[in-house]
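Hypothesis: this fold can be encoded by more than one sequence.
Test: take the structure tokens below, design a sequence, compare later.
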């Protein structure tokens, strides 16, 4: 069914109730009026100067430790979340995205079991978040949706949110939620903070898929080079400890079954490969190309 996302004015935010109602239950929510940036100074030219360099690029998105206290700040309640003991945080948990109007991302969920907090800085975006209880079909071994350009979200089949964000809106994207994002403004700039729960969640189809894939990557290291572009040894910013926590309860039978299920998706992937590759390339090409 089509779901309605909760919206909370930042002025009314109570951290404890926000954390328990949304972060703990892994429920998307928008906090409105989070102006942790100077909209007069954070121009596209400034962003390119700060972030557009080869050493900050990785598959189309940008990790950065760069925070200018007079231009970009980290909201205090975001810091409080990242400092929670139940989360693993990578060395550089902030990502910067900047796309031109008209850009649309390929539906995907984030690897490494990442939660995301995404702050709209410039422009406006339309978000479609699909519940991991009714997930899109997955590209084999990957986190992209195995869907073509004409894919439609049907309320009879998928539970999903469809909403817009404007400057100052901070949306919580729980792990395993597929998201497709449409850039509506002329220039669309977002700051994004990511973190991984230290315990797995097998209550959803994608949560079960993730732990089985982690077990597979741990047991058969060759699959990392064959199918995955990321660095598995630093999974979730923690590495072995987190890998063990996510994989220890997965049996060898479940792992092999997962491997066979992923292989079974290749005939459909072959049919859709050109469309998926084109949309993935558009993301890398359009990021910071404004």
């Amino acid at each position: 069914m089509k779901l309605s996302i909760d919206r909370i004015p930042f002025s009314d935010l109570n951290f404890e109730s926000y954390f328990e109602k949304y972060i703990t239950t892994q429920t998307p929510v928008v906090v409105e009026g989070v102006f942790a940036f100077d909209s007069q100074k954070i121009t596209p030219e400034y962003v390119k100067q700060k972030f557009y360099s080869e050493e900050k690029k990785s598959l189309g998105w940008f990790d950065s430790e760069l925070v200018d206290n007079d231009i970009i700040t980290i909201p205090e309640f975001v810091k409080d979340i990242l400092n929670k003991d139940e989360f693993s945080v990578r060395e550089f948990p902030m990502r910067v995205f900047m796309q031109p109007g008209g850009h649309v991302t390929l539906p995907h969920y984030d690897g490494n079991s990442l939660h995301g907090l995404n702050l709209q800085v410039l422009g406006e975006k339309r978000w479609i978040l699909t519940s991991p209880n009714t997930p899109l079909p997955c590209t084999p071994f990957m986190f992209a949706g195995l869907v073509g350009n004409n894919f439609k979200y049907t309320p009879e089949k998928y539970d999903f949110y469809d909403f817009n964000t404007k400057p100052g809106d901070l949306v919580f994207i729980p792990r395993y939620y597929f998201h497709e994002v449409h850039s509506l403004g002329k220039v669309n700039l977002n700051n994004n903070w990511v973190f991984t729960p230290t315990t797995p969640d097998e209550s959803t189809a994608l949560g079960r898929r993730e732990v089985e894939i982690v077990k597979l990557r741990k047991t058969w290291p060759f699959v990392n080079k064959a199918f995955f572009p990321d660095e598995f040894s630093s999974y979730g910013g923690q590495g072995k400890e987190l890998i063990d926590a996510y994989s220890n309860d997965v049996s060898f039978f479940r792992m092999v079954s997962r491997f066979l299920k992923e292989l079974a998706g290749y005939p459909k992937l072959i049919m859709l490969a050109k469309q998926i590759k084109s949309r993935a390339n558009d993301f890398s090409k359009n990021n910071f190309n404004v």
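The chain has one domain: 2-199+273-286. The two ends are 35 Å apart (CA to CA).
Hypothesis status: open.
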